[in-house]
Structures are given as C-alpha cells and as structure tokens.
Specification:
The complex is a heterodimer of chains A (81) and B (387).
Chain A lengths: L2 H12 L22 H15 L16 H13 L1
Helix pairs in contact in A: 1-2, 1-3
Chain B lengths: L1 H29 L4 H9 L18 H12 L3 H21 L3 H13 L3 E4 L17 E2 L4 E12 L6 E7 L9 E7 L3 E5 L14 E11 L8 H42 L6 H30 L3 H4 L2 H29 L1 H4 L8 H8 L7 H14 L4
Parallel strand pairs in B: 1-4
Antiparallel strand pairs in B: 2-3, 3-7, 4-5, 6-7
Chain lengths: 81, 387
C-alpha cells in the first residue's frame, strides 16, 4: 500500500471526518472536512504507532495535520532520518 | 503607552468603585443587566479601548484589558464578565477583520459610540461544543446572506448592539467548518426563547437563549478561518480576561477577609487569631493565581504575532491550563475566605458578605466546561514530546 493510502486509512479511522475520506483530496483541509484538533492528536498517535516514528515538538502544530499531503510530507521527512 | 494605560486603569478603578460597586448588590439581587455599569464604562471610553488608536480607540493589548477586567472584577463580577465578553469579540474583529471596509467602519463605530458586542456560539443542537455549528450562512446569490441560529445562550442578548455568530461556512459544510459572522442592528433580530433568568451566580449576565435571525452582506463574514480566530484570539482572550476578572473577585474576597481579621487582631493585640493563619495560606494561593495569569499573558504577547507558535500544542495547552487552574483556584480561595470569616461573610446583608463572590465564582469551572478542556489536554499531553 502506498504511504498516502496508509495515511488515508488512519485518517478515516481516527479523524472523525464529517464526510467520507474518499471525497477528500490529498491537499484538502481535513479541518474543513470535520476533523477536530482533538481528533488530529489521535490521528498523530495512530500514525506514530503505524510508522514507528515520533512527531517531534517542532511539527506539533495545526498545519502539520491540515491535509493528507502535509502528513505525507511530515512522514517522508521523519522516515528519511 | 505606559501613561495612557495608567490613565485607563485609573478610570477603571474610579468607575469600578463609583458605579460597579454601588450597584453590584442590586444587580445580583434583582438578577438584572448591569445597565449603570455598562453605561458608565461606555461613557468613560472603556468599551472601545481595544480598537487601534488610528481608528479612534486605545490599541489596548490583552495584558492591558486583562488588568482592567481584574479591577472591574473587584467591584462587580457580572459587569466585569459583560465587559470581558464584549472585549473578546472586539479583539476577534480587530485582529481578523482589519483591512476589510466593513470591519474598519465597525471599529470606528465601536470607538465612537461604544457599541456593545456579544457572542453566539452555543447552539441548542451542539451544547457547549464551540467547535461545531448546526446553523449555516446561507448566501442569497447577490452578495448577501441570511442566518438563523437557535442560540441556547447569548449573554446579555437583550441589551446588545452587535453579535458575532459562529455558523457553518455554507449550507453544505460539515459542522466543524465554521466561520464567524458579524451581525448588527437593524438587520439582526433577537427573540428570547426563555422568559426568566434566575441563576446561582453571575446573575447580571442574563445568559438566556435566543432565536437569532440576521441578514447582511457577505463582507460581514470574518475572512480568516474560524480555527485560526479561535486559537489565536478567542481562546487566549477568553481564558485570560475571564481568569483576570475571577482573580479580581477572589482578591476582593481576600481583601474583605483581611479587614475582618484585622478587626479581630486589633481587639487582642499579641494574639494571632486562627483565622489570620488561614488568611496567610489563602494569600499564597492568590499569589499563585496572579503568577500563572501573568506568565500566560507574557506567553501570549510574545507569540501572538507568529501564527505557528500561537497555534502550537504547547501554547494551546498553556491557554487551556490557565483557565482550568484559575477557575478552580479562585473558587477555592473565595470558599476559604467564606469559611474563615464565618457568619459575617455568610450573610447577604453585611459589610463583609462573600455570598455573591462565591456564587459568581462557581460559574468559572462551567464556562467552557473544565472537563472538556481537561479531556483535550489529556490527549494533547500524550502527543507532546517535551514539556
């Protein structure tokens, strides 16, 4: 499975979107799609477990979780290290 | 700057002592809007202090507004709360509407006339969750909108000129995709959905439900996303203005207790009354509350210009933690004062009565319920890597 699809399935499970994740493009705002800041933290915890990474303090702000694309970029950076 | 602010604070003290304090007991007993207080604050120019000076206001910072709230809280909790809630709305408008003709004109009107602002976030269908709306901005296709909200609470709604309303951005938006809409008379209608208001404390705020209906131009929608306005302005301004006025209420409770203890001490010099020891303990708690408010105000002022750090988990957690801490500690301080002063403080009709202070402070943990903030903090702490 491509990384972005793995992210999609985690967002679908923990993001509590108001719409189906299939209707959300990679660059669309997940917050506009219904994800709360509370849910975004759960998405992060699930991503950390799934990819065995830690999101460092500098990435812990809203824009990291704004879209599937942003999450993919953050993970690319973390997995690269 | 410092001189201007010193003058503002002096004015707040004069109005506080002369007007708020003079009517506080009646406002509380009659459960009525503190009209004399708000009129006096308006007449003294204090309702417009947040508006930038080049639009006729005072460019007051959150730290300065918080200091005014604290002073007002010492004299009448309800009036201070109305003042704080008004300033939170004005701050959202000033910080996130600047540059838009409609909001520029509105700022000038606030500075000139002291228009009173209220907030409509809570909805019958969403309860206290300010992250969601059911109502939506409905565009009319000609650059205008209409909006109908079943608002379960609009504090002092019967006495306001303007209301900032949260709503879904458009009729197809999910509940969390919200915007803030500025609504104003005469195209703002507020019909109360309850005929009485008789609450435990903060009785002057008249926090009843309204059916809100408004029309206007789409330019009345604050252009920035709600989440930004919420994180960068609404939450820090709410938690720190409220926290400061709760501190003011607690300070007056401690001050009344100090007068009581001093009377006892003067009757028997050389013998420390037991209540004096309790007062010393309470005083340390008061200092802790002052310290956390000052520290969090410093954090806000140093991060407010930077959208990233203003929206970081660390800053958000600090903003929520200060509210939880101050709301519970000020209430505990007032209760300790009530205990140490005994019957005099327990009576409604004595010089050192603390019944209003205690009742007003019971509202503190419930405004944006602490349980909700603690839940959020608990999850966030699991995500944080560094305290």
């Amino acid at each position: 499975m491509a990384r972005v699809d793995e992210i999609r399935s985690i967002v679908a499970e923990y993001g509590r979107l108001g719409v189906d994740v299939g209707q959300v493009a990679d660059e669309d705002s997940l917050y506009s799609a219904g994800m709360t800041s509370h849910a975004s933290v759960n998405v992060m915890l699930a991503l950390e477990d799934h990819f065995d990474v830690e999101f460092p303090e500098r990435l812990l702000h809203r824009s990291t979780f704004e879209s599937i694309l942003n999450l993919d970029q953050a993970l690319a950076e973390l997995l690269d290290q | 700057m410092a001189d201007r602010f010193a003058a503002t604070l002096r004015t707040a003290r004069e109005v506080g002592v002369g007007v708020l304090g003079a009517h506080a007991a009646d406002v509380d007993q009659s459960s009525r809007f503190p009209r004399e207080s708000i009129d006096a604050l308006r007449a003294a120019g204090l309702l417009g202090i947040v508006v930038p000076t080049d639009r006729g206001g005072g460019s007051a910072s959150l730290t300065e507004v918080a200091a005014v709230c604290r002073e007002l809280g010492r004299h009448c909790g309800s009036s201070a709360m109305v003042f704080a809630m008004h300033q939170i709305q004005v701050a959202c408008l000033v910080r996130h509407g600047a540059g838009v003709d409609h909001f520029e004109a509105t700022m000038r009107r606030i500075a000139e006339r002291g228009s009173l602002f209220a907030s409509a976030t809570t909805e019958a269908t969403t309860g206290g969750d300010i992250g969601r709306s059911t109502c939506a901005v409905v565009p009319d296709g000609h650059g205008g909108f209409s909006l109908t909200k079943d608002a379960s609470v609009i504090s002092y709604g019967a006495d306001v000129d303007d209301v900032l309303v949260t709503a879904r951005a458009h009729p197809d938006a999910p509940p969390t995709d919200q915007v803030i809409v500025h609504t104003t008379r005469p195209t703002l209608e507020l019909r109360p959905t309850e005929s009485t208001w008789d609450a435990f404390g903060m009785r002057g705020t008249q926090s009843v439900g309204f059916q809100l209906h408004a029309t206007g131009s789409m330019s009345q929608v604050i252009p920035e996303p709600y989440a930004d306005v919420l994180a960068r302005t609404m939450v820090p301004w709410a938690h720190l203005t409220w926290g400061s006025l709760w501190l003011g209420i607690a300070e007056d409770a401690v001050d009344r207790s100090r007068r009581y203890v001093r009377q006892l001490a003067r009757k028997s010099p050389g013998v420390t009354p037991p209540s004096a020891r309790k007062l010393a303990e309470v005083y340390a708690e008061l200092l802790a509350v002052r310290a956390i408010i000052d520290k969090t105000l410093e954090l806000y002022e140093s991060t407010k210009a930077d959208p990233v750090s203003a929206r970081s988990f660390t800053t958000s957690l600090a903003m929520n933690s200060v509210k939880v801490y101050v709301s519970t500690r000020t209430r505990a301080i007032a209760e300790s004062c009530l205990q140490l002063c005994g019957l005099g403080a327990y009576r409604n009709d004595s010089e050192i009565s603390l019944t209003r202070h205690v009742r007003d402070l019971f509202s503190a943990p419930m405004m944006i319920h602490n349980d909700r903030l603690i839940d959020w903090g608990a999850t966030t702490l699991c995500a944080m890597k560094d305290l």
